[in-house]
Amino acid sequence: DELQEISKDQLAVSDLKQLLDHKPQGQKAVFISYAWDQEDKRIEEESSKRIAKKIEGILLQEGVLAIRDENVLNWNDDINSFMSEVIKHPNIDRIILILSDRYLKRDNCTFELHHLMQRIKQENIYIIKVETETEKIGSLDKYRIFWKGRPAKIDLESKIQDMETLFELTI
Description:
Layout lengths: L1 H7 L4 H9 L7 E5 L9 H19 L3 E4 L10 H9 L6 E6 L1 H4 L2 H13 L5 E5 L10 H8 L8 H15 L1
Parallel strand pairs: 1-2, 1-3, 3-4
């Protein structure tokens, strides 16, 4: 079954795009966005990854195509290519965003978020907030200070505007 294979094997972006192009009429596709890292095994990141895998499994059992970039991208792959080929694909109509402090401090995550926020209707974005004792999601000012003067793939105001919208959706 093609859906099962996505969660088991690393796919090339082109393979996933082809699968999306040929999915059965009416089959839903959901993108799961979260902070992940192949090298770093911090507890809170593993929590986000564990939650993402669990959601992916549930969706696959229900016949919903669940896409996690970790199944497609390697740590140093070009996220621009991924965003243009997969995230903007017309068959992806929902996002599950696993929001954490790390997510809001990662350039690739906020870059991904920016593209997702531009394409998906807010009512189709589902947010799961993940916090630990040591890493809490702070106020918008915390992230404005964090990103000020740092090199980033999108400008600071766009990044903050996306975060403002996220914060409004989580309340």
